[in-house]
Every structure is written in structure tokens, then in C-alpha cells.
């Protein structure tokens, strides 16, 4: 099955906002998607870790993808690609998610390895899972490697390379593991015109670009999309020193962001940009920035100040 890889650029793993009763706050989510589009991102990742995917049911997922796609198209941003998280613990359920995402307007499926029975997930089993999914998927598939949410399962570069070489419907990966060497091995082995290896954190954005990343998929882009786009612009123009200066700000802010969790990211967006709230679905709570220490807020404030300079 011939497939096309995601475009090069910055991708925001979009936050999902909720109302106080924990229903979808589509108005705030669409406002957020609009700010990302105006910030120059190449795409959005919906229903990923930052989108609180484990707390979304099938109806939520379908309505969210369709609403974002329609909103972007209506604003004249039809070029922005949607990568949609579709991971589940079985091939059958994963394919259901992918089919629903495709029908709702997604361009690509992002799939975590199954992780309920971690001890059974040998490299061979994980590779068989991805081959089975990709062979039947109506969307091109990206492998999502994030040991922090899969009980420590860390997909090797060997496995990712084998999967991409054996199944043309596997067109990329997101490496939130932070292993730049793995990213380098993958990008230098697989053809760049058919496979997109993405670094998965702002913390190593510039090193990832040097290692062949297809841009970045990074939580901090929810706060500062323009700043990420500027790092990419400076890198492409050969201004490595300028890119390094901004990268240092991103690394400090990204380290702070990890300490507040997904609802904390929403609270920060709400505080600085005036929409949504930190509301999560239980057992997650609804934090406000008042609960965050100066050591967390100061590096984020510096990034916000830079972001607003590009307005």
C-alpha cells in the first residue's frame, strides 16, 4: 500500500479542553487549534498523551477530529495535517479507532504499542502488532514510542526500521523516548521521502533536527508555536547560534512543563492566553498556575514573552 509521509515542520500535540462537568469544551479547543494554525505549525496531533486520549470515548474522538478539521478548513488552513492518536490494546480496537479517525478527517494514525500485558510484549509481538495494524489500516501509520506511558516498552531502532522496510503503510515514528541516537539511526537508514522520524520533545528539538528529525512533535508548542517555528527557520537558514539561543530557552521551559502534567499545561495556556482551563477528567484535577512554584513558572514565562514578541 503506497503512502505519503507527514510534511516537514512543527506539530503541536493538541490539548483537549474540558468544561467543569468534564464534557468536551470544543470552543476552547478550537480557539487553541486556531492559535496553533496562526503560529505556523505544519500539523496537529489530536488524541495523543497531551490530548488526554485515555479519557476520550469513541464519540468524543470522532467529534473532536471532525470539529478541528472543519474549523481549520473554514479558516483557510486546509494544508494543516492531522495526525490522530489511535492506539489501543488490541489490533481490532486500534483499527476501529483508525477507521473512525479516517472518516472524521484525519490524515495519519499515531499508534502506541499495546501495553496491558507488558511482559508478553516482546519485540516480535510488538512488530507483529504494528504489521497487522498497518496492513489493514485505511490511514498511513506512525509508530509512537513513549516508554513513560507504556509500562517501559521501548521500541528499538532495529524494530522500527524492520517495520518500515516491510510495510509501506508505516510512514513515520514519534520518539518521545528522547533517544537522539535512535533517531539518527532511523533517519539515516530509511529514505526521507517516504519515512518521517520525529523527535517528540522540545527539550531536544535542535539536536533532533541535526539527527534528521522531520521537524518536531512537542508539548511545549501548545504554549509557544511561533517560537518553535522560529527555531526551525533559523536552523534551515544556517543560523545555528541563533537556533541554539532559542533552544536553551525551550529546554529549560520543557523541563519545567514536565513537572505540571497535562492539566498543568492547560492551566498555563489558560493563564497566559485567556481561554480554556486546567480541567481534566477524573482522576485528573483542575490546577491553576497559583499552585506552581517560581522555578516552574519563570522559564515558562520567558518562553511566553518570546512567543508574544512574534505577534
From TrEMBL:
Active site per UniProt: 144 (proton donor/acceptor), 174 (schiff-base intermediate with substrate)
UniProt GO MF annotations: 4-hydroxy-tetrahydrodipicolinate synthase activity
Gene3D superfamilies from the UniProt entry: Aldolase class I
Coiled coil segments of this chain: none
Keyword Lyase: yes
UniProt: pyruvate binding residues: 217
Endpoints of the signal sequence: none
InterPro entries: Aldolase_TIM, DapA-like
Keywords for this protein: Lyase
Name of a matching Pfam family: DHDPS
PANTHER family xref list: 4-HYDROXY-2-OXOGLUTARATE ALDOLASE, MITOCHONDRIAL, DIHYDRODIPICOLINATE SYNTHASE
Family, per entry: Belongs to the DapA family.
Name by which UniProt lists this protein: 4-hydroxy-2-oxoglutarate aldolase, mitochondrial
